[in-house]
Amino acid sequence: MSVTEFAMVEELAFLVKDNLRCKHLVLSMEETFLNFLQDDSSHSDGILELQPMDAYNRLLLHRLADIFGYF
């Protein structure tokens, strides 16, 4: 893990550290991302559709996607 990747993980951990709901969101989406990457049949078009959410939760998921290398 590079220094930049480590910094992104630290930032995400800081953003969710005192918010159980956000922790749950990030952990469940991490599992969703892993399943999406591992299961070729579920994403033949390369699109993962998510439920609508508020701006803060979208920010968290964008940070998580950065860590996974989606962007």
Low-pLDDT runs of 5+ residues are: none
Give me the count of strands.
0
Q: Count of DSSP helices?
A: 3
Which range best describes the helical content: under 10%, 10-25%, 25-40%, 40-55%, 55-70% or over 70%? 55-70%
SSE topology string? HHH
Helix/strand class: mainly alpha
> pLDDT average, as an integer?
85
Radius of gyration: 13 Å
Largest sheet: none
Structure in words:
With 71 residues, the chain is mostly helical. The protein has one domain. 66% of the residues lie in helices and 0% in strands. It is built from three helices and no strands. The protein has helices spanning 3-16, 20-38, 55-68. Helix 1 (3-16) runs antiparallel to helix 3 and helix 2 (20-38) packs across helix 3 (55-68). It is globular, with a radius of gyration of 13 Å. The mean pLDDT is 85. One of its GO terms (molecular function) is nucleic acid binding. Pfam families: R3H. This is R3H domain-containing protein.
